[in-house]
Design brief:
about 400 residues, Rossmann fold, 2 domains, seven-stranded mixed β-sheet, globular, binds S-adenosylmethionine, binds thymidine-5'-phosphate, binds zinc ion
Length: about 400
Amino acid sequence: MAECRICGGAVDEFFDFGRQPVSDSFVTPETAGSEFYFRLAAGICTSCTMVQLMEEVPREQMFHEDYPYRSNGSAVMHRHFEDYANRLLATELSGADPFIVEIGSNDGTMLKTIQKADVRHLGVDPSAQVADFARADGVRVRTAFFEDSTAREIAAADGAADVIFSANTTSHIPYMDSIFRGVDALLAADGVLVLEDRYLGSIMEQRAFDQIYDEHFYLFSVSSVQKMAEIFGFELVDVEPLTVHGGSMRYSIARPGKRTPSAAVTEFVDRERTQGLASPETYKQFSAGVLKSCKELTDLLKDLHAQGRTVVGYGATAKSATVINYCGIGPELLPYICDSTLAKQGRLTPGMHIPVRPSEAFSEPYPEYALLFAWNHAEEIMAKEQGFRDAGGKWILYVPEVHLA
Ligand code: SAM
Ligand code: TMP
Ligand code: ZN
């Protein structure tokens, strides 16, 4: 049994996806086969209930010069971060000379709004290429992994931060002890640490098994984040459910006793108990559901192939690596995947080596079926690609179960 990275308790494994490649390693025909592989398996801590991976991928294998993910790839996400930045400017950042640090600032989608308001800010992100996109927009970025030492250096140079914000990033970081020591060194006495991430409750409810991949080391719930904050000397003071990425949660964390915890925290802890988020039975059912979804999806793709139907993929997401490699979907079933990210186009998906083509290739000509790997952006993509349905096309989805839309 593995040891919990948060509390040292025993982690009970509930699903093993076997040998999997690093999810964002989009290779060229020349580098195909060089992907880093690891055993992708998830478990739940029997003490603090944190859901986590059984094996850790070295961080430099995932986050580096060529890391391709761009926050700006979705108009919905762009609006989401702009709205929240404006809310912070009107609240936490409305005092004298405020300062905000973002962990995992990526291409600066969130900090751009802060920069335009002329408020002191610093993004921290180890992935050099995406950090350069942020700099091109005037955002101040430090190309580094946020951890204890980075935080102390920032505090020495810039002073205390009123807000430390991090979206879809802290779940990627196994070393939360170092993160919280860093937050302790950098956060103002009455400052707030705000985390946004995929929500375990939604993942279990929707059987969104593809949310389990290398970068998602943790799948947070309100109960597990509350315990994590406490273990590392902080207090969870508010939570806010978010619709983005198929169901997320925003967690506000402060120094103990500095803010009164909201009723929402207790409500969600109670709700999670009723949902059975810490119960082994929930994970047993989830695991049976994963096998069922994979079988139904591969059966459907094989059937369509046998009938001579045209099928392509849409959205070369990191999470698609789990589906594609675990279900064994290769270019014979899915000749290509369309994606709007420049850095992914012309490359091959990790492991199964399915070519990635620009979004424009989708209509040249439209296929009969499209497997939507970016199901978390379904509304945005289906609206943008209305022409596909108008031409008689059908979307294939596998969350919450395999179905056509
Ligand atoms: N915050 C953006 C969003 O929500 O769209 C980007 C999320 S992206 C999935 C995760 C980002 O975290 C990547 O840009 C990666 O380079 C960065 N990252 C990973 N480990 C980090 C660390 N220790 N400190 C700061 N950034 C990190
Ligand atoms: P994500 O689910 O991790 O945010 O990744 C979404 C992927 O889907 C990313 O590679 C960009 C791609 N995408 C498109 O190709 N077209 C779109 O309209 C959107 C929103 C995303
Ligand atoms: Zn634990």
